Amino acid sequence: MNPNLSRRSLLRAGAGTLAAGLLAACTTTKNGTTTTLTLNVAEVVDYGSAILSFASTALNISFVASAMGPANLALANAAIASLKSALSAFSAAAGSSTSVSYDSASVKTAFDSILADVESIDALIISTITGTAANLSSSVVSDARTAAGAAETLISLLKAMIDMTGPRLRGVSPLSGDAAIGQIAIFSASQG
Fold first, then answer.
1. What pTM, to 2 d.p., does this model score?
2. Predicted local confidence at residue 17, as pLDDT
3. From CA 69, how far away is CA 166, in angstroms rounded?
4. Looking at the DSSP assignment, which residues form a beta bridge with residue 28?
5. Is 190 helix (H, G, I), strand (E, B) or coil?
6. Is residue 175 within 8 Å of residue 50, measured between CB atoms?
7. Looking at CB atoms within 10 Å, which of 41, 58, 96, 187 has the fewest?
């Protein structure tokens, strides 16, 4: 069997699964010149909560906290607190709905705040783990790297919900949102 063919098949299957997942998380409708994005509330809350769990757990790992230093640790804690607030605001804006229009001012503000907060977590925590951990080896470091990759996947999936253009989708890992949440849950449980 040709290994390149197998890899291509795997990547095609992963891309197809990812595209199907994104279509379930967000729908786009067009009425004349107006385009409306509808977000799946459960997906946004689940992804944001998993990133929150990852970030909180990661800050309790000694190599992460020491590599970040006090100033960046304070910024990361502020991003975590802000993400908690943004998730609450998004849930409040959604009410009991299973899907909401991104065009709604309160939903857009809350979702954009979630994106800004997860970007901060990416810049502060994930980059520290992937950069610092390259020189370290242990099961904790390996688990942290895996969880950081899962968190990056969820961040990409959140961004892709409102930006369905090709370049954004090509940057997303073939790991599904549910699989990424599972990896973060295992990481959080093993470190907690």
1. 0.75
2. 39
3. 37
4. 37
5. helix
6. no
7. 96
